[in-house]
Amino acid sequence: MSDLKILVVGAGATGGYFGGRLLQAGRDVTFLVRPGRAKLLRDRGLRITGLGEDTVLEPPLVETGALDRTYDLVLLAVKATGLTSAIDDFAPAVGPGTLILPFLNGFAHLDALDARFGKDAVLGGVAKVQTTIDDDGAVRRLGPLQSLAYGARTDPAPDRLADVDAALRDAGFTAALDERITESMWAKWVFIAAIGAVNSLMRATIGDVVALPGGPEFAEAVVAEAAAVAEAAGYPLPAADLAATRRTVTDPGTGGSSLYRDLLGGHPVEGEQIFGDLTARARELGVAVPVLDLVTLQLRVHQHRIG
């Protein structure tokens, strides 16, 4: 078993789930949380519910501002809107040999992390999980998907990458070292952008959209735009990933993305990180993305309205 000391930054739907599973598997895990979340976790425990499960864990916690040591691995699982403050919060945990594994959407977060900690310290990562945070603070599973992929963004790879792999494997979810992690990150970006665009523009679930005339064709057009940006950037989607994304955005059983849930709830959304950055890259690469431009503007209007 790995002896890495792991700091999980964010105990929400993603960090709470994977960090909780690592804790269950006996890994040395501590959660860095803000005072409000810390109180809730101390009072009620870290709960993972849904799909017939009701697990309650008592996670080791450290509140922001109270870090007094470094860790071997930092798992960063916060909303992109909280990235800047999160970097300041966990910076004291980063020592000379610390590796940072972020699970955020898009690529903009990598620029910020590289600038602060150096590219050699920052891995690439893709998290796939169907979870949400309930009103009572529990992590609720909405579906069976639960996987992490991770890999080096530099050559040679960091010395402790094998230790990271050992720490994340056999912990109750699928974990894989990915030698083409940047390509995988692009594939996920296209996936979440396509679903989020259909949901947001139509204000409906994928199932509701594709059930109507023109719906499947619209969804396919969104996928084509996003995939064209990835290809122009030098990371064309593998055929299997492209086919899987197309199936998902035309599947009557597909619901709404987390971005869509945030949008309907009147909450801040990751519009700039998922769509603003993607459309900016499209312009730099000379790729026309009229539908994605429209989504970007719509989400900017939403963000402006809620302040």
Automatic annotation (TrEMBL):
Cellular component aspect of the GO annotation: cytoplasm
A Pfam family it matches: ApbA_C
Entries under SUPFAM superfamilies matching the protein: 6-phosphogluconate dehydrogenase C-terminal domain-like, NAD(P)-binding Rossmann-fold domains
Pathway(s) it belongs to: Cofactor biosynthesis; (R)-pantothenate biosynthesis; (R)-pantoate from 3-methyl-2-oxobutanoate: step 2/2
InterPro entries given in the database record: 6-PGluconate_DH-like_C_sf (IPR008927), 6PGD_dom2 (IPR013328), ApbA (IPR003710), KPA_reductase (IPR013752), KPR-Related (IPR051402), KPR_N (IPR013332), NAD(P)-bd_dom_sf (IPR036291)
EC number: 1.1.1.169
GO biological process, one term: pantothenate biosynthetic process
Molecular function terms, GO-annotated: 2-dehydropantoate 2-reductase activity
UniProt keyword terms in alphabetical order: NADP, Oxidoreductase, Pantothenate biosynthesis
UniProt superkingdom: Bacteria
Residue intervals of the Ketopantoate reductase C-terminal domain: 181-301
Domain Ketopantoate reductase N-terminal: 6-152
Catalysed reactions, semicolon-separated: (R)-pantoate + NADP(+) = 2-dehydropantoate + NADPH + H(+)
Known role: Catalyzes the NADPH-dependent reduction of ketopantoate into pantoic acid.
UniProt similarity note: Belongs to the ketopantoate reductase family.
Protein's recorded name: 2-dehydropantoate 2-reductase
Natural source organism: Amycolatopsis mongoliensis
Highest classification ranks of the organism: Bacteria, Bacillati, Actinomycetota, Actinomycetes, Pseudonocardiales
